[in-house]
């Protein structure tokens, strides 16, 4: 498989590594008998970080790969593609 690197991939990796560290901390919290509220808050933070990483990856893919696939478009069709890209931000 060929290398497929986008502008935001390094930022996504950084975010995921931070989430990985948080997960290790959460495991330690559970094993250490920390309060459930504290654990739930940290799990929520990790969940948000992963969701944001996914959204960034999808947007990055759309911004770079979709245009390569569809090629040059009329203004009307370009607006449809741009609208599609915008609506995916709400996924």
Automatic annotation (TrEMBL):
Q: Which domain of life is it from?
A: Bacteria
GO molecular function terms noted in the UniProt entry: DNA binding; metal ion binding
Please provide the Gene Ontology terms (biological process) for this protein.
negative regulation of DNA-templated transcription
Under the heading InterPro entries, the entry gives: Metal_Tscrpt_repr, Metal_Tscrpt_repr_sf
Looking up Pfam families in the UniProt record yields: Trns_repr_metal
Cross-referenced PANTHER family: TRANSCRIPTIONAL REPRESSOR FRMR, TRANSCRIPTIONAL REPRESSOR FRMR-RELATED
- Could you say which protein family the record assigns here? Belongs to the FrmR/RcnR family.
Q: What is the protein name given in its UniProt record?
A: NreA
